[in-house]
């Protein structure tokens, strides 16, 4: 489905067929273009929206939770997401929603105040989204979701967010990896907004968990499905471990994430990044710094 206004350009949501209806994995933006694409695709493959019985959300970013509530209102489907990504829980634990957490994290980076203000102001129009979704179920640990002849295992895999969950169709040998493990490139780390947050450490543990699942196909929310999941998990873990090693060395001569961020390897040099891309890179660097210094 198209993601209007996002550099990601599109998201893939998945349907799992069961003997008692459909399971939807993720729910795009709450935008007419996503809804039209979703319902149009359903009709193309011969399914009716009313057949959706369960909505499993990998995490709470706006391109994943968008029309989940609309599906529930239309079909009566149950909506599920990990407890630590439940908006109500997160606001209680973290003292506010996404923008509150972003502001707090930016203040920890050591960036000049005018940079912090500029990054935050630029983020508000694109990052503001409804955080009112109420869940029917918010698991804290591994949970089996059974619909008809299909069992889908939800496994907490924090790192990209604190409540990120991957879902394993155990009968087909498929894992839906959300944003934790794409086919290519690194994983963007969660915003660290509490003293004990360690999304980099969380991610390394999550990658080990995915590596050992023994499934055949990974279906990420962006890019494309792929095989040899264990090899991809090892590759991604090595990349992020190397980032941590680099940050540990840079901290001998640099004092903050702001000073370190320009020195990390990425697809484009720091000097070529726009405000939004620098914000992502800076928050990612902060997560690495906190992992090394905790």
Structural shape: globular
Count of individual beta strands:
9
**pLDDT < 50 runs, ≥5 residues:** none
Taken as a percent bin, the fraction of beta residues is: 5-15%
Helix content: 25-40%
State the assembly state of the protein chains: single chain
User: Between the first and last Cα atoms, what is the distance in angstroms?
Assistant: 40 Å
Number of helices: 10
Structural class by helix and strand composition: alpha/beta
Biggest sheet record: 5 strands, mixed
Query: What's the pLDDT, averaged over the residues?
Result: 94
Strand-helix topology:
Elements: E1 14-18, E2 21-25, H1 32-44, E3 52-56, H2 62-65, H3 68-75, E4 78-80, H4 87-94, H5 98-108, H6 113-127, E5 143-147, E6 150-156, E7 165-169, E8 174-178, H7 199-211, E9 217-220, H8 229-250, H9 257-260, H10 275-293
Parallel strand pairs: 2-3, 3-4, 8-9
Antiparallel strand pairs: 1-2, 5-6, 6-7, 7-8
């Amino acid at each position: 489905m198209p993601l209007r206004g996002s550099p990601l350009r599109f998201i893939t949501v998945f349907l799992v067929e069961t003997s008692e209806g459909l399971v939807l994995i993720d729910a795009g933006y709450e935008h007419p273009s996503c809804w039209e694409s979703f319902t149009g695709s359903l009709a193309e493959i011969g399914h009716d929206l009313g057949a959706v019985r369960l909505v499993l959300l990998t995490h709470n970013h706006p391109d994943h939770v968008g029309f989940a509530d609309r599906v529930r209102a239309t079909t009566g489907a149950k909506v599920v997401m990990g407890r630590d990504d439940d908006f109500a829980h997160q606001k209680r634990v973290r003292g506010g929603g996404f923008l509150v957490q972003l502001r707090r994290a930016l203040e920890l980076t050591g960036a000049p105040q005018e940079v912090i203000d500029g990054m935050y102001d630029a983020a508000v129009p694109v990052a503001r989204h409804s955080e009112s979704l109420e869940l029917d179920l918010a698991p804290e640990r591994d949970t089996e979701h059974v619909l008809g002849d299909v069992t889908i295992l939800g496994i907490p895999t924090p790192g990209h967010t604190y409540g990120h969950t991957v879902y394993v169709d155990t009968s087909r040998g498929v894992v839906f990896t959300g944003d934790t493990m794409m086919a290519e490139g690194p994983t963007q780390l969660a915003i660290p907004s509490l003293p004990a947050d360690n999304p980099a450490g969380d991610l390394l543990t999550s990658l080990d968990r995915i590596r050992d699942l023994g499934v055949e196909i990974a279906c990420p929310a962006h890019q494309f499905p792929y095989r040899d999941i264990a090899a991809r998990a090892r590759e991604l873990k090595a990349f992020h471990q190397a980032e941590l090693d680099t940050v540990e060395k840079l901290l001998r001569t640099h004092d903050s994430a702001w000073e370190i961020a320009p020195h990390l390897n990425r697809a484009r040099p720091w000097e070529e990044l726009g405000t939004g891309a620098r914000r992502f890179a800076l928050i990612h660097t902060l997560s690495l710094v906190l992992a090394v210094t905790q």
